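Progress report, Aim 2. The chain analyzed during this reporting quarter is listed below.
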Amino acid sequence: MSNTVKIAAAPISWGVCEVPDWGFQLSPERVLTEMQELGFDATEFGPEGFLPDDAVGRAETLSRHSMQAVGGFYPAIIHDPEHDPLPELERELEAYVAAGADTLVLAAATGVDGYDAKRPELDEAGWKTVYRNIDRILEAAKARGVTVSLHSHVGTMIETQDDVDHILNGTDVDFCFDTGHMFIGGVDPVEFVQKHTGRISHAHLKDVALDRARRVQAGEQTYYDAVVDGMYQPLGQGDIDIDSIVGTLIRAGFDGWFTLEQDTVVADEPARGSGPIDQARASLNYLKQIIEENR
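Predicted structure tokens for the chain:
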């Protein structure tokens, strides 16, 4: 594998999620141990509370499992002029510095738990607030050597093609390119990676069963139920052209992280050696194959 290609894991692939009542939450010990068993040496942090909140404790936990800290998904309210996202973000960045993490994956939270509630509508003033807060977050992160990647995500303020166009045209922030959320939001992921390669600094790779994703798009099924129903598939087993996407990024000299980040719901604790590790193994093997073919 080329030394320039960086692969990371994410706790959500083991069902660890920030959404309340999102299935059984596996322990950090189990998740990090299974990541190691698969050969991962880097991971995103996971949601608040998965790893220790204090910066030193978080760094020590990852070090104990020989894991490099990537950074990770960070939801923040950036559209409300009455809310300042900087104080909480500053505390989070302390943990990034302590753990040596380099990527903040910023999601524009609605302020409502879960991803199935109705989103607030943004007017021109609302978008100006979003742009202003993104600029402030970029400045705060840059001061600590951290890159910000904006994650267009189902059920957040940045979800649809129109939302993505606002960010492309109104800010300089790079994107966390998520193959699944892009599609569900109505953005063609293959077209996006071809047109905006230079705006992608981080990648979340997941494959998608398009029939289930289209039910979410049409409002016929909730996002949560679709995840339970198998909307996300191991790489190479769904309908997204993962080969083309990864190949395009590699050929363009992409130097960010390819993170295997597949939303999963775990009903109860699986037996050792089974459960989410099986899908993670299949995805990792498929990704390594694509990388080998594009060396």
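The domain at 15-293 is CATH 3.20.20.150 (TIM Barrel). The chain has a mean pLDDT of 94. These observations will guide the mutagenesis work planned for the next reporting period.
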